[in-house]
Amino acid sequence: MFTVQSNGNVVKWLTDPLLKGDRNFCPPAELHLDIGANGIAFDKNGTSLFVVNTDRASIIRVPIMNDGSAGKPELFVGPDCKNLNGADGIVVDKDGSIIIAVNKLNKIVRVSMDKKITALESDGILDFPASVKIDNGTAGQEHILYITNFGFVSAGKHLTPRVALLKAGLG
Fold first, then answer.
1. pTM for this model (two decimals)
2. Whether CATH 2.120.10.30 fits 2-169
């Protein structure tokens, strides 16, 4: 992981084995390249960074030190090939829980701070969901989750990909 300084210089921020990809970790491998650290999101306090490891079906928590440097990464959840294989886009909800687009499994999952994983949506209109974003709205407005369908695997199988921007209420 890298940071870009105000002068444009790119500097290594963090290297750790927990962030490395391994396409064969959760078989079957669908891609011909390793994808490790992928989606990132700050916790609700801004004191840690959550990073998903796409291939290793896990969430890594990286403490952020007072000087902005990375603390020692730790495994927060996983590996869990049944629920997190292909974890990609990530966002932290207002209650601190993590919502993840799990593209290889066609799922959107919520991971609570007590590390319980709940599927919010699976299959249906999902087609390799890649990114998620929350609009918490203002008082009295709906709490909305936006999801992008990337359609990558469908296209690779010569099917018609369902590329889309989806909108779902979170309650």
1. 0.90
2. yes
